[in-house]
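Assemble and predict.
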Amino acid sequence: MEVQEHKFKVIGTRPIRHDGVDKVTGRAKYGADISLPGMLHGRVLRSPHAHARIKSIDTSAALALPGVKAVLTSEDFPKLAAGVVAMGELPMNPRYLSMNLMAQDKVLYDGHAVAAVAATSSHIAEEAVKLIKVEYELLPHVQNVLDAMKDNAPILLPELRTSGTPEKSDKETNIASQLRFARGDLEAGFKAAAVVVEHEFDTAMVHQGYIEPHNAVAQYNTDGQTTIWTSTQGAFTARDQCALALDIPASSIKVVPAEIGGGFGGKIGIYLEPLALLLSKKTGKPVKLIMSRADVLRATGPTSGSHIRVKMGANKAGKITAAQVWMAYEAGAFPGSPVGAGCMTALAPYDLENLQIDGFDVLVNKPKTAAYRAPGSTNAAMGTETVVDELAEKLGIDPLEFRRINGAKEGTAQPAGPKFPRIGFLETVEAIKNSPHYQSPQPKSGKGKLKGRGVASGFWFNAGFQSSATVNINTDGTASVVTGSTDIGGTRASCAMIAAEVLGLKAEEVHPVVADTESIGHTDMTGGSRVTFATGYAVYEAAQDAVNQLKQRAATLWKAKPEEVVYQDGAVSRTTNGNESMTLKELAGKLPRAGGPVAGRASVNPRGVGPAFATHVVDVEVDPETGKVEILRYTATQDVGKAVHPSYVEGQMQGAVAQGVGWALNEEYFYDEKGTLRNAGFLDYRMPTCLDLPMIETILVEVPNPGHPIGVRGVGEVPIIPPPAAIANAIYRAVGVRMTELPMSPPRLCKAIAEKSAKK
Amino acid sequence: MHAITYESPKSLAQALSLLSATGEKGRLLAGGTDLLIQMRAGVRKPEQLIDAKSIPELQVLSFNSQDGLRVGAAVPCCRLIEDPAVRQHYPGLVEAAGLIGSVQIQSRCSLGGNLCNGSPAADTTPALIALGAVCHVASSKGTRTVAVEDFVVSPGRTVLQADELLVEFRIPAPKPHSADCYQRFIPRNEMDIAVVGVGAAVTLNGDTCTAARISLGAVAPTPLFAKEAGASLVGKPLNESTIAAAAALAQQIAVPITDMRGTAEYRKHMVGVLTRRVLTTAAERARAK
């Protein structure tokens, strides 16, 4: 496929986003804004215990409260067999899905849903859940990944057996699966090294921190059809999961996607939708469920905490001779941590002959983990990119030069085996090297304030998956673009711009629409940085389809052959049999006499996914007395393929860095000794505020993806990977301490600095 | 359903008679920046809210060089922060008030609310203790005064009886060459609760310290008056070693806990760091006067 960048008229410009006015005027309808006549309000009762057997649930007092219309427990859910169902490309275990939606015989984490009520007001519903009597038998709990792997650990799921082991075992375990990537001769590799660096890392469980809590409104009709309004990253994915959990046909559910207030992977799974459906079925009324912030933190998201060991060696020339990584990720209460992605991305920026990577997916009494922006790779990069930095330092090589010596390029085999197509990793290293930030003098430490600069890189695969699009030509010669992709990062704008480019219209002349599950062909979730790539691909093809139809219509009017008609710059023309031309506006008015309306369609499952690489540099200031870190300057660079709307690409990079800074410095799930989450709110779950961040500078490197007609690579995820390691490396330059635990919060850093000065 | 009545008395007498009628079931509402959140979380369940904002005595803000500062319990912090006399004479109190929540919160919250909420981590309480502020309390039976350091008895509980309300604070006029300072530590730069807060007020005569008060927040069940730490400075110059010695005495009375905001060990360490920093700044300010 030829990428002809010079011809772009709309791609690469920065028009105002189509959904902007609705959002800044408050008119956009989010899930919580949905209200229906006769609607009931639901509330979920959640476990206060980390691990307990449910001995009995007495709902009689709640049901007796005036205004209460229904109570739901796991009795109302179908009992499903264990097993794995492929959902798109995401494996789903219906039994575990159901057990997470509503605890069956055991609660497995603080916040696990136990019952739900529907009542005529949210206040009554709140009173009613307090009247449900649950008798628990407390069980010992385990929340640390290494403890959970021990032989005598409390077992969460007695039926679980480890998959991926060389020999089949019938032992009860919390290890859901294990995997290994290996090649070359590790021992020989370490022998050939002039320097070997080895560290163990711990990273805390963290949440995506989207502003909008989960929500669902369901209306069940007596004909068995249900409509669900919800803010979700994928209307079709939500529908399929509901059908799976309730053992009903997917076609009996219509999901209408509401506007979404952030997701970052955390709104791919479902939590409330089947509960709202069942409560609506029981009462015959629409039922609305909305989570509190505490519910969101206790029971949704988060991503895995982890324990990671990294050992790497390099020779005097700076070539990495061997790399070994061992990582255990918290799955939460059910299998499914992103340890596989962690293993595949950990060393991917480097060309390695000898490596071994082991990964373990481990159950702990914490919420089931969900996807979070490049899931699994930020933890891994904290380990590997810190060790890479130390190797470079010990060899006296500039960290960017070290990456140039070892960096992956087209044809390099990834740790998991496949060879990279054309990628732009070294271009990002070069871009940082030449950046005004890296070229500026190293920050100078002053009295009581120590400063340092650090760099780190990251890799993310990006996803393809299935998408559909329709491009409708309006009677006035403008167009609408209908897709099934939740717009979470400006993809309405990018889809409209791709259609505008093909149709020769202005971006403003194309109106983008996100449709429900009955109004567009199947489309997988917004995730894997895939929408501008895959849905954009479908839009490109649908617009081409519309162009072909327009050429046919013009040929009919001119009594010519379609191949004699040329479509360019929003007009049809022909050069044979005289010069005739018509603008799209003129042609649109004549369509009723030329064969009828034009609607271009396409459904795709594109394979030419372009991997993404990022390299970041950060300057920090450390107060050695308090251990507090200030981010002085931050520059992120990334191979973005082709930036369709550069402002939104930059926004993705800045947003991801902000999340990465939070993950690095303060965010963590803080459980007490009873296994209760103590910081289930944004006061004590400390995400950075605007006062904690400098303006994040961005540099877009455009190495077009040969697998996409416009050269697009996914851009949303990879920029969250480097920040924790880059900041750790900067802290080392400032105070001489290698931090191996996230978050690098003031108490931890203060202690590390004190321990270092005590050793002197 | 939990029903709530709301009253907005226009005089102190009216407020006191409402309070004596409702007793334990009533709760004074000033800015509501703590109370409304606690009610939403089910921590406090008052049946009657008595809005303090329209009571004239609780909105007094006046300063004169003889009697010092009078601050009504419901004066919003933004008024205090912007007051030229307060800014000139009590910079530490301005620092503390300016740290509560955010700019939006400061337009609602008050010194009285901050103290009556009874949190050990309240920012303005250590600043008031350092200044030797006294609370004027009224009930339908009469009035009494309580030193700020004696006001909070345990987390969320104060010396106020069910029929009493806090009317105002009186803060002594600053002596020549005296100044105060308040600092807290939070992991972020805003929207946070003190991990440790330290207030100090010092008076100098030449190089010699003639009076010093030090107070600590978030390191015990109640805000602490570090009396010995302050007294250790009297009669001495304020230099690195005397300040370090005072900081060590302040650390001795801190009995912090480990929680999601920091470890006990770290909090104790931070008492030392912040005590040194506030004393240094207060001394610099006093010298400049």
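Chain A has three domains: 5-28+464-604, 34-139+214-290, 306-462+609-759.
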